[in-house]
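Input chain follows. Return C-alpha cells only.
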Amino acid sequence: MKSVTQSKFHYLSGKFKSVRPQILYGYIFATPSLAIAIILILYPLLFGLFVSFHQWNWSKGQADNMVFIGLENYIRMVGDPYFWNALKNTLYFTLLALVAELLLGLVCALLLHRITRGSLILRTALIFPLIISDIVAAVMWKMLLDPSMGHINYYLSVLGLPAPNWLTDPKLVIPAVALVETWWNTGVVTLILLAGLQSLPTEPEEMAQVDGASGWQVFLHITLPGLQPFVLTAVIFRTIDLLRVFAIVWGTTGGGPVRASQVMQHYLYLQGIGSYLNIGYATSLSVTFAIFIGIIVLIYIRFIPKVEVE
C-alpha cells in the first residue's frame, strides 16, 4: 500500500514539475503584452481618475496649477444644468437613432436574406455610408437640410408640404441629427443581423411552413427568437457608439440652437480642450459618463433575455 502511494506521489510530482515550466513560460511570453496593456490602457484610466479630483486649468499652465480639491468637481456636476441638459439630449438622440437603426436594419437584413438577384448591389449601397467619415456625413447632411438651399426642403415645397428649419428648430434638431446618424450607421446593424439570419438553420422554418404557419408566424416565433443574440449584440455596440456621438453633432449644429442639440461628448470637449480648458472638471465628467455607459451595458446583459442557438 505504501509503495502504491509513493508511486502516485512521484507521478504527480513529476507531472507538476513538467507543467510548472509551461506556466512560467506562459507568464514570460505574456509579460510584454501585459506591460503594453498597462501602459496604453490602465495608466491613462488611472491618471484620468487622478486628475478628476483636481482643479487643473490649462489656460494658466499645464502643470503648475494642479490643485487637489477632492470631490468638488463631482459635486459641481450634480448642480450643473448644462451637464443634465447634455445628458438628456444624449439619451434622447440615442433612443431615436437606436430604434430607427434596429427597425431599418432588420427590414434590410430580411430583404437581403431573401433577395438573390441584385443582392450584391444592395449590400454595396448599404455599406457605402460606412466608407465616408462621420464629419463628411455631417457636412453633407447639413447642406441637404439647409432651410433655404437644401434639397430636402426643396422637394417638400414641390410636394406642397411645409419646409421646416431642421437644424435651427429646438424641437426638430435632435430628430434631424438622429436621421443623419441613422443614414450613416444602419448598414452596421444590417450586417450583424444578416450574419445572424444566414447562420440560422432552415429546417425549423421549413417544417413550420409545411404545418401551415404563415410568414408572420414563422418570423415571430422562429426567426426572431433565433436572432435575439445578434439583436442584443447590435444593441450593445450601437448604444455605446451612439452615447459617444460627437462629430455628427459638431459638424451639423455645433450643439445649437441654444444648446438644444448639445450632447455629452460635445460638452466634454468644450469644458476640456474646446473652450474653457478646465481639464479637471472635464475629466470628472468623462469618468462619470464612462461609468454611466458601463451601467447601461450591464443592464442590457443582465435583464435582456438571451436564447441559446444550437
